[in-house]
Amino acid sequence: MKIAVVPGSFDPITNGHLDIITRASMIFDKIKVVVLNNSSKNPLFTVEERMDLIATSTQHLGNVEVDTFSGLLVDYTKQEKAQAIIRGLRAVSDFEYEMQITSMNRKLNDQVETLFIMTKNEYSFLSSSIVKEVAKYQAELSEFVPAPVEAALKKKYTKE
Fold it and tell me: Which tens digits make up the pLDDT trace of 38-58?
């Protein structure tokens, strides 16, 4: 079974993320979407909320599972017997950072490959940070995030 890991903070998952996950799910037998808890970020959603939003947004994809992990991604890939890490690229500016991470991952475990999938042009500007900024001002979000995420963002920002 060919298993790929799609890691990220997903705070929250966007249609750009969903595009990458969907396209990867057509190539691999199993996709593990892994919510990493990045201590350098101040997330809007808890890890559990992010996992629920991803699970709901990907329920139509029969070979996608959602998980969380703290630690090195290469350790997780070993634990799950994954052959690949999938990373989405939006623009050239993403490439340098992703190349550094990929090089380190290869040094730590040369048995797992990193594959880059270019996002569709319609999502090339999209990031979780931008979505949160737009949501803060109650703008229309339906073309940027799955419906459950839009509802969750509206709920978060009407509490404040």
Answer: 667 789 999 999 999 999 999
142 is catalytic: no
Is 32 considered catalytic here?
no
For the chain, the domain total comes to 1
What percent of the chain is modeled with pLDDT above 70? 97
pLDDT (mean) for 124-143 = 93
Catalytic residue flag (residue 41): yes
Q: What is the CATH number of the domain that holds 23?
A: 3.40.50.620
Of the residues 2, 41, 136, 154, only one is catalytic, namely 41
DSSP string, the chain: --EEEEEE--TT--HHHHHHHHHHHTTSSEEEEEEE--TTS--SS-HHHHHHHHHHHTTT-TTEEEEEE-S-HHHHHHHHT--EEEEEE-SHHHHHHHHHHHHHHHHH-TTSEEEEEEPPGGGTT--HHHHHHHHHTT---TTTS-HHHHHHHHHHHHH-
